[in-house]
Each structure stands twice: as structure tokens, then as C-alpha cells.
Amino acid sequence: MSTAPSRAQPPDLGRSPERGTITLKTSYLPRKSARLARRLPPLLAGLVLLGPIASGIAPRAAHAAAWTAPARSIYAKLSYSASSANDQFGFGGLTRPIVDGLTDYPFADRSLYLYAEYGLRDRLTLIGQAPFKRIFVHDRLFRYETTGLGDVGLGARYRLGTRGPWVLSAAGLVNLPTGYSHTSRPPLGPGAVEVGAGLELGRSFYPRPGYATAALGYTWRSSARVTGVTNADSAATVNYADQLRYALETGWTIRQRVTLKALVHGVYALRSGGTAFTITSIPSSERYFKIGGGAACRVTPHVDLTADVGTTPFGRNTAKSIDITLGVATSW
Amino acid sequence: MVTRHRDDALARLAALAGEGLTTDRRGFLRALGGGLLIGGLAPLVAGCEKNIVEPLTGGTTVPFITPLADFFVQNGAQASQATWQMPDLDAATHRLVVDGLVPNPRSFSLADLKTLAAGHEITLLKTLQCVFDAPLLAGATGLSGNAWWTGIALQSLIDACGGLKPGALRLRLHGAESFTNNLKVARLSAPDATLPPPIIAWAMNGQPLPRAHGAPFRLIVPELFGFKNVKWLARVEVTADDHAFGTYQDAGFFDDGTLAVNSRATAPSDGARVTPGAVRVSGFALAGAGLHKLEIQVDDGPWEAATLVGPDTIQLEESLPWAQFEQVKRAATFPFPGVWVGWRHDWTATPGDHRLSFRATDALDQAQPVRDTSVFDGTNAITSINVTVA
């Protein structure tokens, strides 16, 4: 890495593969529906959605969420995400092996994600996340392993308004690098500051136990100076492309305990080309479209177990990865 | 009473602030603290970063001629065009247009080129190296590969169009997928009698040029970086414009394109562990001006010359049509300009951690620098590997 991208390579180095998905909470219904929510299947109020859009909270994972948390409520989730790839998408979208002749997943990301939300007010939810990255890549000659703290995200979601079963929110998040080395192969992140903002639209199908969300956002990304591995003076500035993020999601609760969901989401870099995806560096621009689904099971009134799976049917300059995420979430 | 008034005031403030305002400072501080905790701990935890690079092999010996299946593929326009697609040109119908400042512009099919070349076909050795290449970039040889190429001199096409009109200074080269570059007309002939001229090549290692390498034909200029050797060649435009025209030039890369003297070790691998005693260290070196020597330094010791692998040794190890090569016909001195050469050095390894450094010098007495001052003319600083002897 992913990515990528990454190593000073004047234009041509680079890559950021999908680092796994983050399953974020959903759960909070509009306040006007609060009384109704108490009569809903408990799990509907604790739905696990992939969330916030355009915030970069889940690096490369822009998923839909629209409802804010009730005031003084807390939600936290610990996830283990496994992302693996044999192939990559080139700049033109064509698929090719990441390493010729290797089919033992030369790219593997096995990271842990901690995500939390706090309802500061009914309309305002604070968001934070921190990933502990574990990236394992190899070619025919070398094996590379990098572990450590990745980019930290801090943000918020604000409910703009509701109308019947509809809710509209605005979300924003800042992703910050945490001082990891740029000479590690692969690096733990792009080393760039990312600022995202977007709109999230949600609809509850109450009294039926279903929901749908849509989100669209913009992420501004700074440039970063990347130093060479064999020659520390051979540094180059990588200009990361700004991105549009989008997501559509729908879910349905069965027997008031299990929620099944389906989603599509993606990232569209507003500039193409630049540094390329390789297993040891992060690309300066990438595009991908992912589809997937998942399930959340409420095991206690305050604890959910989640499982999500996704694949990447289309992309440019990124890994064609399969992503599996397991999580445990708690709320009170 | 004071307490009651205070509570009343707070309640009125809550009402004025509207829905959801909480007087719970604890909740707010909790949230703020959580955010600060994540941000504040981050730098501390960042020190827990671990990075491991482990060689999976002890190193590899690189053959003089790179097999087609192992030859790197790099496409210059791919990084700059979101819609880039590799051309799939029909050799029977694709034509190379030669126009501009020539009396008789015309186009050539592959069959036309071969007919024109009858009796004057040129086969030459040339190492393709991407200007982005750097040691340990990818695989043993990274973005470098050596092959023998067969085709017709570009000068022959110009002659078939009636020669050059007065004022012609450069050739604008256009690939079928919009990659562009240029070549000064002065280079149509060789600056010295031993250097082969640029050719339009249709064969690689004796096989028809593969699609990924520019089929049905491409430009090959012996001493220049890969970006000067335009693939899927579609047009040669002769112009009086002396501007440094080209896709990479627009991105800041140098126009001259001459291969900078560089080298790398392919055995042992960086980070390898070897046993004490005799260790064969090997690799390859390359220079657009022709290689003069390759030196090795162990830790901070003296620089020692490595043994260059000569053509006799190459011939024993690989069966090549040596006599056909243009360089041989022109009595060029080996190592040839723009053709890599293998080197070998027997090192008496003593226990401990050691750093091996490699420095090549070309025929113009230009040596690899200690630091690379620019990445836009090729990465060619002195390289090193770390080896543990135990």
C-alpha cells in the first residue's frame, strides 16, 4: 500500500488500496419519532450503518448515515477488518495482477478500528475514530509488514431537519496523520490532512422495520512530502486528489433482533493519474465502486455483533479487494 | 434564593436555546475529552510503529537478455490519462505517418517497413530503463530490461519521404494512445560511428513485438531512457520548432533523455542473511555513454572494482545471435552504450552487520553521485544494501 500509492516517487509511486471497511453506527431516529422508536424493534434503533459520508472516518469507505444520536448517548464499536487482493485496477480501469504470478494475496490489510459517537445534543453528534493498522504485502522477492496507528478522525454530524420519515443531516470530519514514518513500506497512511463534508439523507419505513439512506460528500486532501527509501534526500511532494464520496444503503430488521443490510459506496477522485498504486505505496488518486452487505445481531440490549462483506467490481488505480469486517458495538 | 434564581436563569437559557440544549457540562466535557484523548494520545502511540522488510530469497542472478515474459511494462501516458487504454493495433492496417518538413509525406505499414528494410535490417542490443526506475523498486531488475531489437533505421523512412526540408530541427513523435516525445534530427545519424542509429523496431528478442511493448512497431534509441522510445508509434512529424515537445517534458522531465549511469545489486538481497566466507555479490550497471567500471565498498572501506561480465562469458551462458548485433558490426567496445552489463564480486564476508555500496562510472568518467539532486533526469545516486553475516 494500499494505495496506496505508496516512498518518494515522482509521480509514479503511489497507491491506496481499500484498507477495509468500517462499520459505523446508525441507529438514531429523528426526535419526532422517538416515541414511535420505543415501540420499534430494538435493533432498529441500534442499526449499524456504515457511516458518515465524505468524512473519511472510514478511510476510503464512504457509507451512509443520517440520524443523529440522542443527547448524552454514547456509541462505541471495535472492528476487525480483513481486506485482501490478488489483482489491482490500472489507471484505465483494467484488471491485472498486483504481482505477476502470485495468487496468494500479495496485498493484505488486517486492521483494528475503534469508533465512537457521543450525542452532544439531539441534533449534534460528535464522532471520533482511530485505526490500528496492520498491513502485510509481498512480492516475489520481499515481504513487507507495517503496523501502527493510522490516521485519526474527528468530526460531527448535525441534523438539519426532518419531515415525517425523512431526515437530512450534514456531516464533517477531519482526518489527521499521527506522525507515522513516510519511509515505511508500506506506509500507515498518506501523511496528508483530509477534510470532508457532506449531506446525508435518511428515510425510515416505520411501521415496517426498514430504512434507506443516501449520502454525498466532498473531501479536500492536502499534499504531503514523501521521502525516498534508499535516499532520504530524494524527497517528492505528492499532491493527493480531492474526492467525491457517495453511498446508498438499505436495511431490514427481522424478528426484532437481526438486521440485514445492502449497500453500494464509492470514491471518485477529481483528478486522475499521478502516483500509481503499488503494494508498498499510496496512490495520489484513486476511484472505486464497492458493493456489499452485512448483518447485525443484538445479543443484549446494549451489545450488537456485526459482520460485513464487500467486493470491488470497478476501480481505477486501486486494489481489487475483498473486504470482511467483524465487529462488536455497544451503546447506552 | 440565589440558587433558585440561578436555576431559573438556566432554565430560561435552555428554553431560549431551543430543543436539545443541555446544562450537562459533564457530557460536553466528556465528549471534548474524548476527542482530545484521541488526538493527544496519537503522537505517543505513533511511536509504536513497526516496519519489517524481509527478503524472501537470497538474491537472483539476472540474465543478460531479459525474457519477454519477465520484461517490465510501463506506459507513459497511463499516469496522465484517466481514459487510457492499451492500444491493440492491427499490424495489417496500422500505418506510420511521416509528414511535416519532408518533400513527400507518406505512411508506412509494417509490411512496407519490412520491404523497405530488405537487406538493410538492423538488429541491436538496447536496455530499456524507465526514468522512474530506482533500486529495490519492484523485483530484481525493477523497471529495467535488456533485449535485442530488430527493425529499420528511422533515417531510412525520412529518406523514403525525400529527406528533410531546410530548417528541420526536431521530430515530433506521436504514439497511438497520445503519448508524445521528440527527437532532434541530428540524432537520426549516430554521433559516432560505433553507436547504432535510432530504429523503428518490429521484433523483440527475435519475436514479433508484443502488444504491451508497442506492437506492431515502436521507436528504439540505444542510449536514451524508455520515455524517449515511443511505443505504438503512429506519426513522425518533422518540424522546425525547437521546443522540447512531449508528455514527460510537460511534466518537468528532462528532454535530453540520455540514460544516467546507474547500478544495482541483485544478489544478495537487501536485508539478506549470509554465512561467513566467500559470498558472490552480483548485479548490473548501465550508462547511456557506455559503462566504464563498477566499484563496491564494504562499510566505510575502500572502493574495489568489480568484474564486468564480458561477451565471451555471456555467450557461454546465453545463446545469442551476437554477430548480427549492430554494435558488433560497428566494432563498438563492450560494454555498449545503453546496454547493461552484469558485474560480479567475490566478497569475504566477516560476521556482523555490513553495508555494501555500489558505484558505477561511465565512459565519460561520470560516476553515480552520493545524492540525487533531481528525480526528473533519472534516479542514479549510489545505492547500498544491508547484509547480516552470521
Write the layout of secondary structure elements.
The complex is a heterodimer of chains A (332) and B (390).
Chain A: E1 24-25, H1 34-39, E2 48-49, E3 74-89, E4 95-97, E5 107-119, E6 124-138, E7 142-149, E8 152-163, E9 166-176, E10 194-204, E11 210-221, E12 223-226, E13 236-239, E14 243-254, E15 258-269, E16 287-300, E17 303-316, E18 318-331
Antiparallel strand pairs in A: 1-2, 3-4, 3-5, 3-18, 5-6, 6-7, 6-8, 8-9, 9-10, 10-11, 11-14, 12-13, 14-15, 15-16, 16-17, 17-18
Chain B: H1 2-17, H2 25-46, E1 50-55, E2 96-100, E3 106-108, H3 110-117, E4 122-129, E5 144-153, H4 154-160, E6 170-175, E7 180-184, E8 199-204, E9 207-208, E10 218-220, E11 233-239, H5 247-250, E12 262-267, E13 273-274, E14 277-286, E15 291-298, E16 303-305, E17 307-308, H6 311-317, H7 326-329, E18 341-349, E19 352-362, E20 383-389
Describe it.
The complex is a heterodimer of chains A (332) and B (390). By secondary structure, chain A is an all-beta fold. In chain A, 2% of the residues lie in helices and 54% in strands. Chain A has 1 helix and 18 strands. In chain A, the strands form 3 sheets. Chain A has a 12-stranded antiparallel beta barrel with strand order 3-5-6-8-9-10-11-14-15-16-17-18. In chain A, strands 1-2 form a two-stranded antiparallel sheet. Chain A has a two-stranded antiparallel ribbon with strand order 12-13. The longest helix of chain A is centred in the first third of the chain and has 6 residues. Chain A is globular. The two termini of chain A are 37 Å apart. In chain A, 62% of the residues are buried. Chain B is built from 7 helices and 20 strands. In chain B, the strands form 4 sheets. In chain B, strands 3-2-11-6-7 form a 5-stranded mixed sheet. Chain B is α+β, with helices and mostly antiparallel strands. The N terminus of chain B is likely disordered. The chains are: A mainly beta (332), B alpha+beta (390). Chains A and B meet through strand 6 and strand 7 of A and helix 2 and strand 1 of B.
